[in-house]
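Morning!

As promised:
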Amino acid sequence: MNQQEYEKIEQQVTPPTPYISNLLKAFFVGGLICAIGHAITYFYIIFFDFTEKTVGNPTVATAIFIAMLLTGFGLYKKLGQFAGAGSAVPVSGFGNAVISAAIEHRSEGFVLGVGGNMFKLAGSVILFGVASAFVVSLIKLILVTMGVIEW
Amino acid sequence: MKKLVFPLFLSIFLFGCNEEEKTIEVNNASGEEVEEVTTVIENKDEIYSGRAIFVEDQLLVAVQAKPWLDYKKTKIEKDLKEQLNERFPNYEITVSADYKLYWEAQKLLTEEATEKVKEKVEKLKKLSKEET
């Protein structure tokens, strides 16, 4: 059996990827997470002194806190298996990446284990966010100084 | 199950299409001012709902932009403020498309005590300027 024959057999045996149902699952679960996030947003606007401009921070913090609880109880794993990217793309997926790494390396100690490995997965996301935010704000500052746009 | 998906989608999408009447509410002020502020908000197509609060020399206008035009909020606020400034030169005007101000304005509509309303309006003005 040569390589081409093997590939042919392999493709026959492999079950087809259910793209449509994966897409729908990701769409609805991701949308559900975002709808919950929006409900939290309105909760903070109505019951606390937050405006639409300032409500982002407490909402993100709450979403990450909920993701932390779900990760700790092992429920986010199940959600991730079901919904795929639908549960990974919202900010709760980011929280899950940080917290699951922290839980995994707990046995190695708090400094070298938890501290050293916590941001292994999500650290690049934070770095990319900070660096790109700096560049974007620099571009905006230049445009505002030139008078093209306003703040 | 699969047959159900399409009608379900359609009904969800079409829910957004039912055009509702523009609601404009103004608290107790003299008739002329109410009429004028109502026409100004009425003529703005991007807005679907507005609330205006008159208290002493302050005028607080809280509006809600139509969902698809939400990204134009700052422009809508600016335009509306300019138009109101022309008509009410004696008032200190605050215009906001923020949901927080819209929500609080609803409570102020029925509030009778001027002192309380003024205090609340001052607080909302401060809140609307907050950035972080």
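Chain A touches chain B at residues 42, 45-46, 49-55, 57 (CB under 8 Å).

Hope this helps with the figure draft.
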